[in-house]
């Protein structure tokens, strides 16, 4: 049965179907096989199976969720998951008309995807895949089983799909940022002279977890060191602390950096953080729907270039949402390896950016601010907008 584009008996599709269909058409894709956790989560309306949240491996294989979506045909959509996900469906039914909660590894999941694609008459179609998130054994099986199909890299199309956030996504990103900020400030206040980096990181993990966030990482420096790895280094009076943490709330990322001081910041430290803040504000001043992404980057870099701290300071901005670096991609290979394909494109309402200025001062240490902003028609909205000065340790 062929489904006419835009016509469907499915009423609870959790994404903008018209937009996804348009992006698929532009990419030359008839059917999607989404296999990454972030894209399957997006296409399932926020669902992610908790059993494999920390690790994919099981037995001799690994967990491979697959969402099959036909352009213009949501009635033909399917979710292929682990056998235990049948219980998830009983409690909170998936929107896809077809569910195969039957897999323990990559090959049985790929087999079911092939069977479904054949069943809906798309065995020779243009099929969008995620090469970076499709295991080689599953890819080889699909390639052999569907010799007439054209397999197309859908990565860019899926990134564009997630670039514009819904109001519900913005709220999750705001909540994640607030929880991470609160946790970092509480950890700084808790830490005292003699507290080690390892102890601070563990305290931050507890703070984030107790607030309902999922802790992912903490990069932390003390004193004049630029080393952000966990260690037994202890905080000493007068030293600075930088705390950069990533965690998530219902899968959406909070990623911010704040500064601490044990004692009172001296005039030089106040001045150095003010230089960082000046660059941040320069970037914020250009964040607005319609502004070219590259113009925002160029303005911030121009302000930094005139600063006395420019020789040891770097500016960077990237998109964020379900993962820490996603569309819009504004800078090329800086520092993460990808092309800045959005630099020449206008920022759009409800894009979300992480904006960060990092100083590696030769004697005073690692001084950084990282902030999260959502693009609006009038400018921007900041998430977790507090604690951006010198936060004093040992006050809790």
TrEMBL record:
Protein's UniProt name: Xaa-Pro peptidase family protein
InterPro entries named in the record: Creatin/AminoP/Spt16_N (IPR029149), Creatinase/aminopeptidase-like (IPR036005), Creatinase_N (IPR000587), Pept_M24 (IPR000994), Peptidase_M24B (IPR050659)
Record-annotated Creatinase N-terminal domain positions: 19-164
Domain Peptidase M24, residue spans: 171-377
Lineage of source species: Bacteria, Pseudomonadati, Pseudomonadota, Alphaproteobacteria, Hyphomicrobiales
